[in-house]
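Researcher: I've been going back and forth with a colleague about how Ornithine cyclodeaminase family protein might be arranged in three dimensions. Neither of us has a model we trust, so I'd like an independent prediction. The organism is Corticicoccus populi, in case that matters for your notes. Sequence below.
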Amino acid sequence: MITLTDKEIEERYKIHHAIKDIKSILNDYRNDQIVESIRTVLPAGDDSSMLYMPCISLSQKVSIIKTVSIFPNNKDLPTTQGSILLTDLSDGKHKVTMEASYLTRLRTGAMTAIATDKLARQDSKTLGVIGTGNMAFEQVLGVIEVRDIKEIILFNRTAEKAEKFKKDLEEFGIEIEITVAASVDQLTTGSDIINCATQSVSPVFNGEHLTAGTHINGVGSFKPSMKEMDHTTIKSADQIYVDDLSSIKEEAGELIDAVENDVIQWSDIKGQLSDFYDGEFLRESDKEITLYKCVGAGYFDLAVANGVYK
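Model: Here is an independent structure prediction for Ornithine cyclodeaminase family protein. You can compare it with whatever you and your colleague have in mind.
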């Protein structure tokens, strides 16, 4: 059996590879070639969680089981760590185990790229990033893959983390003007696209400060208790799309809360990635506020794991 580390994967497998493989798995999903069970999330104490995701692609004849640990209080280790076991369904042989921290971030960034490409204004120039933890980096890569971003504005509750994130982006080779906002309101009013990648249990920005034409990607919260966005933001959205509606109904705290409080209904969600990834541009005007919410699902992990293996 092959064993691959995050470093080995990162050297060979990039955001454009992940976008291509995510689109391929969305085609499998659309054609009823995916077999999966709901992600199991178990509390591990001290705000920590363990996640377990099994999935099969009948057309690609592979299976995965993904295990992820999320430990927000880690100081010397990443908050999110994971591993994937990939099995060949032609003979049942376990082919490869791979670290999945990078792949988790990358597949989420690829999904954000697909949604942003269909929803964000074509002339979007400024990307605002709220939360500068590990998950945020590949979200930036996803957005700049599909839009000609000229400025990136960062905000984190701990300013030092935002400054480090800026340095990481620059060292990666991103030649875009990057600033650290003094307040989240400054970021909200000045951004064409906003990425939220936090595990907050309360909204991280005020929806009243959104400007017309903003597109929002919410990718951080993944439990019913987590809420990155407020009711104003959700109610203001002219179009709401998600990655996987079944998972969203179980795990997207801000949308669950909005439905329970009659801010929106589930029927207000216009579709999921498999409905629009290869379709027409979805935005109907430059003044619409659009929202994409992501919590993840096993078939997205299968897409990138099999892409790495191939």
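Researcher: What would you highlight for our discussion?
Model: I'd start with this: Residues 87 and 94 are 4 Å apart (CA to CA). After that, consider the following. Residues 101-119 form the longest helix (19 residues).
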